[in-house]
Amino acid sequence: MTPGEIKTNGSAPAIRYGVHATPFGRCFIATTPRGICALDFVGPGRTGRRLKDLRDAWPGVRLSKDQAGTAALVRRIFDSGGRSHASDKGIALFVRGTAFQIKVWEALLRISSGRVASYRDLARRVGRVTAARAVGRAVGQNPVAYLIPCHRVIRGTGMLGEYRWGSARKKALLGWEAARRGSL
Fold first, then answer.
1. In what order do the strands lie in the sheet with 35-41?
2. In this structure, are 106 and 176 located in the same domain?
3. In contact, 119 and 136? CB cutoff 8 Å
4. DSSP state of 85
5. What residues are labeled active site?
6. If you ran DSSP here, which 8-state letter would residue 7 be given?
7. Which CATH number do you get for residue 161?
């Protein structure tokens, strides 16, 4: 979002959403005319909670279910031919965050598919070498799983660390990317 849209809380966008199967479990995807605003992995019965979260994040939003339209997006996202970033696929993102969060998310986009970086590495990349914890919080608040690849961040010790959508899914995402890249 532009600074002006953030300041005025943006106009309430029309958001289309759907829930679809992916190689990593079911995902909830939401999109505006300007781009994808949410992509989460969801378990059974979690769609209602996700819709409430979306309404809280976008006051006054007009929501409509669009399984067919969002299915096409999900196919583009997960049938990537080795490409994993939204920009590699011509997919627009429409996300809101603080200036610091946006810097962290942009740094995440520069981590190549099949590769990883530590929180400290990311802190260095955004010019805040002592802010590894703040970077961790920004990574955890990423609204578009996989497209802004927060799964590529590991602990400085080399351990995978936490992932909002489960450590098994994080391991699967990293393995899938490495295999597609030919790194295994």
1. 35-41, 25-32, 14-22, 62-65
2. yes
3. yes
4. S
5. 150
6. H
7. 1.10.10.10
Distances (CA, A) of 143 to 39, 129, 140, 165, 184: 6, 24, 9, 12, 29
Q: What does the alpha-carbon distance between residue 104 and residue 99 come to, in Å, rounded to a whole number? A: 9
pLDDT digits (tens, 9 = 90+) for 3-42: 555 554 555 679 999 999 999 999 999 999 999 999 999 9
Under DSSP, the state recorded for 112 is P
HSE-CB at 141 with a 13 A cutoff on CA atoms is: 16
Single-letter residue type at 69: G
Domains in the chain, number: 2
* Predicted pLDDT of residue 159: 80
Encoded amino acid at 76, one letter: R
* pTM exceeds 0.70: yes
**CA–CA separation, 133 vs 4, rounded Å?**
29
Same domain, 69 and 118: no
Distances (CA, A) of 181 to 13, 86, 113, 138: 37, 17, 7, 27
- Axis-axis angle for helices 132-140, 99-109 (nearest 10): 80
Residue where a domain stops, chosen among 65, 89, 113 = 89
- CA quadruple 151, 89, 143, 21: dihedral sign: negative
> What is the domain extent for residue 44?
3-89
